[in-house]
Amino acid sequence: MLRIHPRASSRMLVAMTTDGDVLLRLAGEIDDLGARLARVGTELRTVRSEAEPKPEEAPEQAPQEQPAAQQTEPPAARQAEQPQEPHQAPPQQPQPAPQPQVPPQQQPRYFTHPQQAQYQQAQYQQAQYAQWQQQYRQQYQQQPYRQHYQPAPKVTLAEKLSKEGAGSRLLAWVGGAVTLLGVVLFLVLAIQRGWFGPLPRVIGGAVLGAALVGIGLRLHRNPAGRTGAFALAATGIGALYLDAIAATTMYEYLPAYAGLALGLLIAVGGLLLAVRWKSSLLAAAVVLGCVVCAPIITQGFTPELVAFLLVVQLASTPVQLRQSWPSVAVAAGIPPLVASVFSTAFTGFGGSPANTAAALAAGGAGLVLALIVTLKRSGDAAALALLAVAPAPSLLAALFLPKTPAVLVTASVALVLLGVWAAGQWLDGWTGDLAGAAGLLAALQTTMTLFDGSARSAILIGEGVLLALVALWTKKHVALAGGVVFAVIGGLIALAFDVPPTLFFLIRNRPDADLAAALLVAVAILAVAITLPWVAHRLGMFKAPSENVVPWLFAGVVALYGAGAMVLCGALLAVPGRSGFLLGHVVITVSWTVAALVLLIRGISVVGLRVIGLVLVGAAVLKLVLFDLSALDGLARVAAFLLAGLVLLGAGTRYAKLVASR
């Protein structure tokens, strides 16, 4: 039989304290089990000793309860102290040879008597263990408990459909959707064939919707009929909302503000009923029922449709703040944006004030709702998605507008979003970064719309430099990424129109204004080629040139291109024609060698500068051999080779002295 001593079990449990109260309860149960096993073992030995046969010559038994000191004495000593009985055999009988007495092995005893010292010691240890257990529990409860998130197991569609009652729920919701669609088709058919009249149609739709809601309320009292209650209530609320849209847009019984107010009341009532019944499915069904069938009533995607969908979104705001129902946020937030996009596409070029206002309202409502939800629930995926796509309708509508209104729309969107980005210190998670990215996109569209020609590329590259400095100041990588995007787009436009590669190979007569603009673009290219890698290195995104050569080499090539274009455009402005072209190339070659000398001198203690200087020396030599030798002629060729050679010779001599003096 396995024996577990209380002291040993307590020592084992002292080390196992990693799981808190569970291990503590387990320790107590094991201690109780050990004590019970000890008592059972003692009782079994007592019963066995009483059941054994007693010989006639056996001596008197010792009393059952002996002091602890006597229990520990060896058996031989106890036998010697016992008196001889008078009926024992006479001593004259022959005795067998004395056998060596081997004392039996002493079995471990379990002390259960309250007066025994071992029992008192065990009780004292148990009391100490209980006190330690209580102290540990208090300390453990005071520490913050971090519950690790365990994702719920995914339930497949087949498992959902196989559950009991799934078929009835599916039939109820499908029936509600078909009923709502039937109401819409009936209204359309009644209009086409002239049945009844406008007023009876509106009254009939209202009566039907109210009846369905009433039946749903009655069925909800019985738990067995709640599935049908949800479907009927959603269908009735959708019918009432569509009836309000028809009364406003089709029959014009209600002015626009009254129809919107009535639609708001109906949507709020339906969503409050969903909150009362604690059903996210009912809330989503109410929103979708009002959204899906509305374009049929308004006969297409119009600004009026966008307004009614915004009413549904406004009505769902309190529900989204009170309940964490992402399905409701998506069902209410995305449809106004989609409807606004389609409305803009159907309106066409030139736009309209109503469509532009609807697009701005849809984007503004989506932005405000997303910010409110993210302030309450940081990292809400539905709110972040709504924030990312909220500016889309306004920016798309601006593409169809004339230049001035388009700039006003995109600039307003950019200012609002960049303001949200600037207030990112009060926002959590990705909210500020998403707003900043959307604001930079709006600013890019504003620049592309407002400027054209050489000014467009220069402004874009200049904005790239400005964003790089903002990233250095604010430590935000989104600003640096935006600066790279602006610089790349502006650089591609400059390569195509302002400073093309043919500038270095072909002699063309260009107006002074174009040359001045190209000079400005070249200066911007040189500035952005220096600023972007430097800021990226300061922010820890780029390693030193000695550790990561590729990005620095690319930035160096861009800087050389910008510097060469700047020198060549300046030379053409100073000396027009072929003479200016040759002079510019001579200055480019000499300037490269001078820059290489400066970098080598400064790079004696800096490995990166030394590497860049050596690369620049190689580039200057290649230009001399591959381009200047064939493209230049006469005095220009001689000047390029003499000046570059003298500079390189002086650089080598000076550099050797500096290296030797270290």
UniProtKB/TrEMBL annotation:
<feature type="transmembrane region" description="Helical">
    <location>
        <begin position="198"/>
        <end position="217"/>
    </location>
</feature>
<feature type="transmembrane region" description="Helical">
    <location>
        <begin position="478"/>
        <end position="497"/>
    </location>
</feature>
<feature type="compositionally biased region" description="Low complexity">
    <location>
        <begin position="60"/>
        <end position="87"/>
    </location>
</feature>
<keyword id="KW-0472">Membrane</keyword>
<feature type="compositionally biased region" description="Pro residues">
    <location>
        <begin position="88"/>
        <end position="106"/>
    </location>
</feature>
<feature type="transmembrane region" description="Helical">
    <location>
        <begin position="549"/>
        <end position="575"/>
    </location>
</feature>
<feature type="transmembrane region" description="Helical">
    <location>
        <begin position="229"/>
        <end position="248"/>
    </location>
</feature>
<feature type="transmembrane region" description="Helical">
    <location>
        <begin position="517"/>
        <end position="537"/>
    </location>
</feature>
<feature type="transmembrane region" description="Helical">
    <location>
        <begin position="407"/>
        <end position="427"/>
    </location>
</feature>
<feature type="transmembrane region" description="Helical">
    <location>
        <begin position="170"/>
        <end position="192"/>
    </location>
</feature>
<feature type="transmembrane region" description="Helical">
    <location>
        <begin position="356"/>
        <end position="375"/>
    </location>
</feature>
<feature type="transmembrane region" description="Helical">
    <location>
        <begin position="328"/>
        <end position="350"/>
    </location>
</feature>
<keyword id="KW-0812">Transmembrane</keyword>
<feature type="compositionally biased region" description="Basic and acidic residues">
    <location>
        <begin position="45"/>
        <end position="57"/>
    </location>
</feature>
<feature type="transmembrane region" description="Helical">
    <location>
        <begin position="581"/>
        <end position="600"/>
    </location>
</feature>
<feature type="region of interest" description="Disordered">
    <location>
        <begin position="44"/>
        <end position="117"/>
    </location>
</feature>
<dbReference type="InterPro" id="IPR019286">
    <property type="entry name" value="DUF2339_TM"/>
</dbReference>
<feature type="transmembrane region" description="Helical">
    <location>
        <begin position="457"/>
        <end position="473"/>
    </location>
</feature>
<keyword id="KW-1133">Transmembrane helix</keyword>
<feature type="transmembrane region" description="Helical">
    <location>
        <begin position="281"/>
        <end position="299"/>
    </location>
</feature>
<feature type="transmembrane region" description="Helical">
    <location>
        <begin position="638"/>
        <end position="656"/>
    </location>
</feature>
<feature type="transmembrane region" description="Helical">
    <location>
        <begin position="607"/>
        <end position="626"/>
    </location>
</feature>
<feature type="transmembrane region" description="Helical">
    <location>
        <begin position="382"/>
        <end position="401"/>
    </location>
</feature>
<protein>
    <recommendedName>
        <fullName>DUF2339 domain-containing protein</fullName>
    </recommendedName>
</protein>
<feature type="transmembrane region" description="Helical">
    <location>
        <begin position="254"/>
        <end position="274"/>
    </location>
</feature>
<dbReference type="Pfam" id="PF10101">
    <property type="entry name" value="DUF2339"/>
</dbReference>
